[in-house]
């Protein structure tokens, strides 16, 4: 089966290491470097999706925390994801919700399990865990997803706090739990594309966006290992 996620370097400067690349995503081909507009709550202010497409915009960002609050996972699922909801035919990237640790710093508290937020909309308490972040992004149907990260302000004076944040929510037990939990919930998602007569059972057990995310992790790991930059046991 031909995986829908591919990355190709088209040109590279051997002096500066700058490069021009093309990412083939489920909904679009995206050239890098790329200008990616931010549609926090599933919309761009003052411009229509078809106008963005006419400007050759192939990738926009959606915010996991805010979309998880409004409209929420259930409505996103009923609407068949954010692409359908906002009439967007190109690629979507979603953050993990971790940036709100900085932008909503007065409304959140870090816990051992994730981030506890006081909703700016209705004051309710919600806990954003790594598993919940992935669940929301899967409901959104993003082409590129992020694992929950502990974001620290760039001017934070405490080096120990910055180092601590590097390892938050990224232990092997947490990562294994995320993948296992999502696989269990996605058994009913149906078979994958079998048009070429081949089918990978593990690949198709995941919802489409998670399958692409798994491919992405494998590609990044292989690339870094080929450069000798990452120990084999670091992933």
TrEMBL record:
It comes from the Eukaryota. GO terms for biological process: tRNA modification. Pfam families: TGT (PF01702). GO terms for molecular function: tRNA-guanosine(34) queuine transglycosylase activity. Keywords: Zinc. Residues 181-206 are annotated as: Disordered. Residues 181-190 have a biased composition (Basic and acidic residues). Residues 16-167 form the tRNA-guanine(15) transglycosylase-like domain. GO terms for cellular component: cytosol. NCBIfam families: tgt_general. This is tRNA-guanine(15) transglycosylase-like domain-containing protein. It comes from Darwinula stevensoni.
């Amino acid at each position: 089966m031909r995986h829908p996620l591919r990355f190709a370097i088209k040109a590279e400067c051997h002096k500066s290491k700058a490069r021009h690349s093309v990412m083939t995503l489920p909904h679009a081909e995206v050239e890098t470097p790329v200008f990616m507009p931010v549609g926090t709550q599933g919309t761009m202010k003052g411009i229509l999706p078809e106008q963005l497409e006419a400007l050759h915009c192939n990738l926009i960002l959606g915010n996991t925390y805010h979309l998880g609050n409004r409209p929420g996972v259930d409505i996103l699922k009923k609407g068949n994801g954010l692409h359908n909801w906002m009439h967007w035919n190109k690629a979507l990237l979603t953050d993990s919700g971790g940036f709100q640790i900085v932008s909503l710093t007065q409304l959140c508290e870090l816990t051992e399990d994730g981030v506890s937020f006081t909703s700016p909309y209705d004051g309710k308490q919600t806990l954003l865990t790594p598993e919940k972040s992935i669940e929301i992004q899967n409901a959104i149907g993003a082409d590129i997803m992020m694992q929950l990260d502990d974001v620290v302000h760039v001017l934070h004076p405490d080096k120990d706090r910055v180092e601590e944040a590097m390892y938050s929510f990224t232990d092997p037990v947490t990562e294994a739990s995320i993948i296992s939990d999502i696989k269990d919930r996605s058994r009913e998602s149906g078979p994958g594309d079998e048009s070429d007569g081949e089918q990978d059972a593990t690949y198709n057990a995941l919802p489409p966006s998670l399958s692409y995310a798994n491919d992405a992790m494998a590609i990044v790991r292989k690339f870094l290992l080929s450069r000798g930059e990452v120990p084999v046991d670091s992933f």
